[in-house]
């Protein structure tokens, strides 16, 4: 996998909105944080546009992201927020210039579609907190993002997490939002998960939806040959009046218990304040012990 160049003080970064609309006022604190890191911030023309729930029309959002992909002076692209809309424009993007001059793309949730698509181009990207959430998410979340961009120290992350199946795995990190992973199956953004460390998270879903999506991943062969599975935050899950009968961790474990790779629950990635950066495509070592989980990756802080 190709690793985009690390940022330096003075690097130029872009802010765009490929999905849901957002107000400029809510992003001003993040702009100041990025400037405090020594970065020069460029705002997309339609970053704060509004077309119903979207940040501008599909054409406008495509134009904004395309411009930043093509601009050789832009060293990283921050997706301001998720929501819904990235899959509506992804097939209209031309990644030719991006492949010739790779740059970091940062985001999560709906931006999972971009991470998966870029993974298939052989280029790393960063699953991490986004500018809209810089002031909500923890200082550690921001520090791991800063480190992923080459602006901070690196090391090994160790967590007292739920170790469901012990073991050590080596492989490329890939994953993100479960709903987006499933929606990309059968498209140009569908990824081969064999031999890779998959991480999953989601928000605001019914428990039976989670079960259906995990079964879909299993039927599509996405779970069979993993090197390891990291389960992150599954936030604000819902149930019907007649309960589904299983909690999230039980549902996910039921889909993978027949395999033999290491599995952990509760990793700090997803729609909560502890949303630590993971470099999609980076070769990492994932170790699950009885009372501790460690992840050794080039970006850890």
What does this structure look like?
By secondary structure, this protein is α/β, with parallel strands linked by helices. The protein has two domains: 12-136, 3-Layer(aba) Sandwich (Rossmann fold); 156-296, 3-Layer(bba) Sandwich (Glucose Oxidase, domain 1). 26% of the residues lie in helices and 23% in strands. The chain has nine helices and 14 strands. It has helices spanning 28-36, 58-70, 86-89, 96-100, 112-119, 139-148, 178-183, 207-219, 248-256; strands at 12-16, 40-43, 76-79, 104-107, 125-127, 156-159, 162-165, 167-177, 197-203, 228-235, 263-265, 278-280, 283-288, 293-296. An eight-stranded mixed sheet has the order 6-14-13-8-9-10-11-7. Strand 4, helix 5 and strand 5 (125-127) form a beta-alpha-beta unit. The longest helix is centred in the first third of the chain and has 13 residues, at 58-70. It is globular, with a radius of gyration of 18 Å. The model has no long low-confidence stretch (mean pLDDT 95).
